[in-house]
Amino acid sequence: MSPRPQTDALRGSIDLLILKTLSLGPMHGWGISQHIQQVSEGVLELNQGSLYPALQRLEKEGLITSAWGVTENNRRARYYEITAAGRRVLGEEIESWRRFAAALELVLRGA
Amino acid sequence: MSWLHAARARLRLLFGRREAEARMDEEFRLHIELETEKYIRAGLDPREARRWALIAFGGVEYHKELMRDGRGARWLEDFVRDLRYAARGLARTPGFTLVAVLTIAVGIGATTVVYSMVNTALLRPLPVPSPERLFALEELRWGAVWQGIEGRGVPYARYLRYREATEPLFTGLAAHRLTTFSLRMRGEAAAVRGAMTSGNYFAVLGLHPEVGSFFARDDEPSAVIAHHFWRDRFGGDPDVLGSVVHIDGQPFTIVGVAPRGFTGTVHGLPTDVWVPVVAARRASGLESMAAWLALFGRLRPGVEPAAASAFVDATAKRIPPDEPQTQVRGAVLEAMTGMVHGGMRDGARTGLTTLFATALLVLLIAGANIAGMLLARGVARRREIGIRLAIGAGRGRLVRQLMTEHTLLALLGGAGGVLLTILGARIAAAAPLFGSEQLALEPELDRRVLGFALALTVATSLLSGLYPALQASRPTLVPALKDGDAGTAGARVRSLFVCGQLVMAVVLLVLAGNFVRVFQRTLALDLGYDPEGIVIVTTDLGPLGYDATRGRAFYERLAERVRAIPGVTAVALAGAPLLGGGALLNDVRTAAGDEGRREWGVPQNHVDPAFFATLGLPIIAGRGFTDADRDGAPRVAIVNQALARRLWPDEDPLGKAIDTYGGEAVVVGLVRDGRYSLRSGAPGPYLFVPFAQRYAGHVTLHVRHGEGVDVGALVRRIREEVRALDPNVAVQRAEPLAGRVAQMLGPTRFATGLLGLFGLLGIALAGVGTYGVLAFQVARRNREFGIRIALGAPARAVVGQVVGRWTVLAAFGAGAGLVLGVVTARLVERALHVYGLGAVEPATLAAVVVLLVLVGAAASAVPVLRAVRVDPVEVMRVE
Q1: pLDDT, tens digit, 9 for 90 and up, residues B427-453
Q2: What's the complex ipTM?
Q3: Which chain B residue has the Cα nearest residue A6?
Q4: What CATH number should be reported for the domain whose range is A8-110?
């Protein structure tokens, strides 16, 4: 079996970032990677290729769908779109992330 | 509808491998292009920009692999790849593939043909709704007993009592009896296979008519015809409903056609016409044993068979017996399986089981053969497999791949086997299985048979393929790479396989040889009379309402008319043909009260004065019957030698009195023993009484004709004479007596033929296996032989090297096979004593050994020649 380098937490956060990005509107793979980089102001330096296995996984889980489309420069690209199920999962994930972050914050403050 | 979308996406991911790969490539390319352009816009030169883009992206192939795994279609892709690889591998060695596929096909075909017969005769349920709720009610009784193919019978009046008493158990209790009707529509009467049934027969079975309706009462003059009868006799014409036919002389209206596929309640004995029992026996009466009926019912929902059986047993004891001499011990319920009842069932069951077991033996031999071939193939491919292991292929992966190849081989063989089954089933369809009764069984290729073939295929692939696959993929890298050859462990196992094959093949041969010998003995049986030149014609006046006087007059007139036909030299009347039963069985006692001797169940036949001369049965002492032995004259009898020996061991039987069915009689003659059945062994006792002193409606004419007479034309003339006397009388059977002998030998001939075929297949397969092992050995040790020859070894030594160890093995295998074969033959004899199998004769064993030596010689000739002719120079040059 091939090794799986990402920890669950990291994989989970990639999923979260993708879903959040797509909740703004359909986008192709490169666009997603640029958006994540810009919004995180370069802090989340992500291996761009690892985006695609994540996209495939999310599509398989029915959280996103994809279809061929055309970029502003008239090039064929695969556009990803969040599904209703994806939005629901995103909401739950954000909620639990916030709780986790808040708890972490509390612990850190107490220390 | 998002779930639908998601499902479709998942399916696409799973199966659209090519599409997925293309999409992956395109997405990655675009991503890297866009990233590169970003860097170019930032001022990098294109080459540098692309480098940075690739770094940012990470390992392209690595991500692709992750996605391929993520698709979850890995095993499927691997499987398709393995399949393609296996197909290529098999195509590369067409000789090997052909032999292997044929071997498997023969094994699976043989087993499946027999299985389809077993399925048709024993396993297939009746074609009615919920057949598992149908049970036959079998009364156990002493005294007057009637046992037919459809079950044990009871008188009609008794059936009515049961019907009433078992009301709480059954939705209905039906009665039936298979019989032969004489059916007249226009012109000549024809004998048809009929069933007399109760009115609720079809309702209890749960059937609906194909056309028209069913009869509902026991006494209405209505008839239902079978679908095949409707199609063949009436061309499927719906107007046939309402037309009147004469059945045993009585008018019946055809009211309906039974559903297609339903041919009665006994497999292989299709019924043409169903008639209500009371109406059918109106002329002859319901009291006669010819009207006794077998019973079956459909259990009500919730009624347990065991409880019902106990209830039925109690009921049987409560109903008073119909005759004072009869004692009813109880009754049981038996599942209605469509199987014939009585002794025939056991014969069919043991016969088919034996055939099935021998077919499995053929399959085992074939499997061992395949295993040996695959082992050799694995050794031959050692270098290839070694390389694959060296570059990192997992062993599990390799085993899977080899098994794919073996499974593909088995599937091809299985398909061939099904083809052979289709061919074989045609032949088996004509096979008489149950003795003289001609049962029409059509082995069908239904789902069950095909499933069985598939299961055999999978089992073959697993049993014969797994070990070779494990063996071949053993990681012994270094020797494999160093030299295409490897140790001798595999060779030893292969030899064991061949040895096992030989053992099984010899067992098969001994069995088959024994059957052939028995068959030859049966063929050579001296009947004690001359069956050549005699035609037997059977008619039955019983159901037509003839009394004894009119019946006798009919037959005497018929005999006279037939005697006048040109070419006929003699005509004799008898109650039944001598061969194949039909005579009543009765107890015979010396009329000395209770102290006298008693012989149970002696066949009793009433024959006219011409009978003994016509058949060529010599009267040894006393006289034959004469015209003076009439009704009213003193009762006389003639005994055969066997009966005389049993009743009066040391005395002259002439003048002695006997007491039997019909009263006392005086023995006036002693006749030579003849064959009354085809079982080998000593002929049994037989009693003859004068035709004129006893009457039964059922009579067989024995017509002796001169040489060169056209038998077909003669039979037609006799039929015409019968019709001229009474158009309602149907000729039930008309055939040469010699043909009847052949017909009765049918089942034995069939079983013998099949067994012989299996035996030959087994030894042929073993021969192929032997050849394979030897040829492989020679090919592998080519260099060694070359060196030996170069060093001056004589040809004899090389031959010894090739066949020495093999001969020891073969001798051991053959010896074990012979011993096992003799033991098995004894077991089969016990199971199939009906065929008169005896112990295996030494001649049979000798024949088997000779055949073995021949096959061994043929199998080793080519490899040995090849070994002796190895050219040392050629062999050295290869290295």
Answers
A1: 666 655 544 444 555 666 778 888 888
A2: 0.85
A3: B66
A4: 1.10.10.10
